[in-house]
Amino acid sequence: MAGTDRRRKSEAADFCREDAPAIILVEPQLGENIGMVARAMLNCGLIDLRIVNPREGWDRDKAEKCSSGARLVLDRARFFTSTKEAVADLETIYATTARPRDMVKAMVTPRQAAKESVELATRELKTGILFGKEAKGLHNDDVAMCDAILHLPLNPAFASLNLAQAVLLIGYEWYTMNDDTEERYIPETRSKMARPATKEEVIGFYEHLERELDDSGFLRIEEKRPSMVRNIRNIFARVELTLQEVQTLRGIVAFLSNGRSGGPGKGK
């Protein structure tokens, strides 16, 4: 899904926060996966990538090709020889694992982990999320170091995710905790015609439509006319019409009217 505004790409760092959770990859097997993780992180404003003993070293070229330009994350990535070193400065760590472990630990959803991370950040406490190698996941010793297990509630009969997908799902929950995007809105546009129509413009359309409905005989029953007019107006009132849409509707009404009167819009 392509959604990057290339004109704003230089602003990517402005949407990242230093108090965001660290993403710690333990023994990742493919440079391509590291690149896709970097892409997922930058999607969600995460910037602290830590890598523990990547297999066959660090293949920057392969990672960069798969990062879709998330060099900001790759440039800042830090490498460690042990998980213990990678998490040393963190106060709270979540382990991502799908396998049952013989350990008694709290289970949290990505949403709950995000809430906790945001709250901890207000107290200047740093969190991290631990991801194991693609094929086998985390070692038990790594899980033992964590404060809770982060569990993604997915289809229990098919909960398979690749590394970047898991990072994206978890990162998204954190990002939305800090985001004030309206739940429903009409995006702004530079077109003057796409602005919301004024009441004068909308009422002008209503009156145009009603004149044509009167002329066509649709509103011929006098006692029913007021309620029918109100119903028609209420239909359009439920839609947030733009000036362009009002003009299009008036054009449709005019075209149908010309067709009825034998003008250029006349059909069969």
UniProtKB/TrEMBL annotation:
Its main location: cytoplasm. PANTHER family: TRNA/RRNA METHYLTRANSFERASE, TRNA_RRNA METHYLTRANSFERASE SPOU TYPE DOMAIN-CONTAINING PROTEIN. Catalyzes the formation of 2'O-methylated cytidine (Cm32) or 2'O-methylated uridine (Um32) at position 32 in tRNA. Homodimer. It is an enzyme of class 2 (transferase). Residues 22-172 form the tRNA/rRNA methyltransferase SpoU type domain. It comes from the Bacteria. Belongs to the class IV-like SAM-binding methyltransferase superfamily. RNA methyltransferase TrmH family. It is found in: Cytoplasm. The gene is trmJ. It catalyses: cytidine(32) in tRNA + S-adenosyl-L-methionine = 2'-O-methylcytidine(32) in tRNA + S-adenosyl-L-homocysteine + H(+); uridine(32) in tRNA + S-adenosyl-L-methionine = 2'-O-methyluridine(32) in tRNA + S-adenosyl-L-homocysteine + H(+). SUPFAM superfamilies: alpha/beta knot. This is tRNA (cytidine/uridine-2'-O-)-methyltransferase TrmJ. One of its GO terms (cellular component) is cytosol. NCBIfam families: rRNA_methyl_1. CDD domains: SpoU-like_TrmJ. GO terms for molecular function: RNA binding; tRNA (cytidine(32)-2'-O)-methyltransferase activity; tRNA (cytidine(32)/uridine(32)-2'-O)-methyltransferase activity.
